[in-house]
Design goal:
Belongs to the biopterin-dependent aromatic amino acid hydroxylase family. It contains 22 helices and 17 strands. The chain is of the alpha+beta class and 585 residues long. Strands 7, 8, 9, 10, 11 and 17 form a 6-stranded antiparallel beta sheet that branches. Strands 12, 13, 14, 15 and 16 form a 5-stranded antiparallel beta sheet that branches. The two termini are 51 Å apart.
Length: 585
Amino acid sequence: MSYESNPILDKLPKHLKQFIKPQHYEAYSPIDQAVWRYVMRKNVDYLSRVAHSSYVDGLKKTGISIDHIPNMYGMNRILKEIGWAAVAVDGFIPPSAFMEFQAYNVLVIASDIRQLENIEYTPAPDIIHEGAGHAPIIANPEYAEYLRRFGEIGCKAISSAKDYELYHAVRHLSIIKEAAGTPQEEIDEAEKHIEHLQKNMGTPSEMALIRNLHWWTVEYGLIGTVENPKIYGAGLLSSIGESAWCMTDKVKKLPYSLEAAHTEFDITKPQPQLFVTPDFAFLSQVLEDFANTMALRKGGLSGVLKLINSKELGTIELSTGLQISGNFNKVMEHEGKPIYIQTKGPTALAYREKELVGHSIAQHPEGFGTPIGKLKGINIAIEDMGPRDLKAYKIYEGEQITLEFEGGVTVEGTIITGTRNLRGKIILVTFQDCTVTYNGEIIFKPEWGLYHMAVGQQVVSAFNGPADLNSFDLITHEITETTIKHKKSAERQQLEQYYLQVREFREGKNTTISRNKVFKALTENHPNDWLLPVELYELAKKGNDEAFQQEILEHLESIKQNNPKVGHLIDDGIELIDHSFTEVK
């Protein structure tokens, strides 16, 4: 096992465990640690004024340090107090898997950390975004329940083939953007490809719509009033650039509603508008309203068609509670209702998420087809028939019978047995020597073996994934590309050594280091690095060395002139240090 488990992680199904990877804490460089510290110090200072009160409280409750990148195992020890756990993964994972982790109260944390060049914002999920953004806010019980419920509903949302294409394109962009030395043309091309896909998605799938809801709440949500909102979305909490930008009048604030599901987003750009929820409970209300529009709750012909179009493993549930899981490829309809459904390839039958004995994929390797609906000319549906009714209509062991359904499906054969649910209702009838026809066309022949006819008047639910997780081999995820780890140059290794020396001095591990010597070497060998001089300025301030402070400030001024893009980062870092020492005095 590549990670340390706990009671919450023990309950995860195998197919989710395939995404978990070791954190490799020792791989974080001293520069990575400095990036974490800069972002966290700036965030805590600024966010204590603009974030929801749960954020600062949650930082304390989850034990997330400002000075050190969190260790996953340490986080887990503290998270379990609030009934959650965390796991490390490699960047973006498929949306349905991400949401399913949430349903099990598990926070998915991309354990890589953004480069110094992308310190303000990165499209890649990283430990700053996940650990400093998501983790603290789940200490709020109402929000934590929303997150869990969102995962539970979201993982049942039906995707389209285009969703998977977009997922792989976004994952690719996030990988190359965080890989040192990627040519700008390659990044531009990847961004254009995403833009093209987003403009040509067609009718949005359920997964696309619920992903929008996730974006405008969990990632980019505001709470309070439109006039005076506070931040709670992890994307904002972890972006030192966008958390300030979003509070200006340049970003439109809208009351949160179901409309957010139909508002698309662009992961590569700052958001032009944000949604404000009055409180966390309202998030759950909108989520339930959205769930009411899903095939999960509506079923019907539209639900079956969504599964067929997704070309992915899915489940339909009939009004008797019988569940059919497989790849749906055909539906026959009559008056807007499905009257016959067909799967292709391995199929399993279940009742209440538990596979029916004798109806695994081994018994249905080629697919499964069944009529749905009422018998022609009979008012009472098969599922509503008691034992006497069934006998009267000859739906009985050993009877040779012809069942004609509304819409033109006919089942003719000898009944062997029936399968009942816990309430005693018949959910499956098994025939031998059976012929099934639809308007005269043969769709099942006697030589194909036993025919199992599902009983159900209607499709009450259709959703992504199998009814019983154990029915299928779901450990099939193949990562097409992984985060890129370039070999570090001698120059980079030298810079990391300088960062390490300053870090060890600050933490009292090695106080013999000459900060002036480190600064001199840094200015000679790495004149464009700005973050370490800021850290050295903090130490000079602490030691009341005014001459050294002045020397550093002059050097930082020259960096700002050569690279205006980092000017505000330098100014913010200096201001934060000056402010903290003023407060101490």
